[in-house]
Design a protein that fits this description.
elongated, 4-stranded antiparallel beta sheet, 0% helix, mainly beta, 29% strand, 85 residues
């Protein structure tokens, strides 16, 4: 029979991943992002029209947006708020 002992915080690496508690990601529900999903925008660097398809709150007070360029057959781009208007 195996005797189990309390695992210290420093010994977390010895536990299987499934036994580790998941850390919650902090999001502020009262925070308003500048652009909404589905809103048309323009890329500042190329002046191409694009549409917001996703948004992410990034640590450090930067908003990251996922945009799809209009009339282009390419993967969506991840850009910061200051790169679109």
């Amino acid at each position: 029979m195996t005797t189990h002992t309390q695992v210290k915080h420093s010994d977390r690496a010895q536990l299987p991943r499934g036994l580790l508690p998941r850390r919650r990601r902090f999001t502020n529900p009262d925070y308003d992002m500048t652009f909404q999903i589905g809103q048309p925008v323009t890329l500042n660097c190329t002046d191409e029209p694009a549409v917001i398809v996703g948004r992410i709150q990034v640590a450090g007070c930067l908003d990251e947006y996922i945009v799809q360029i209009v009339d282009a057959d390419c993967a969506p781009l991840q850009v910061f708020e200051f790169q679109i208007s």
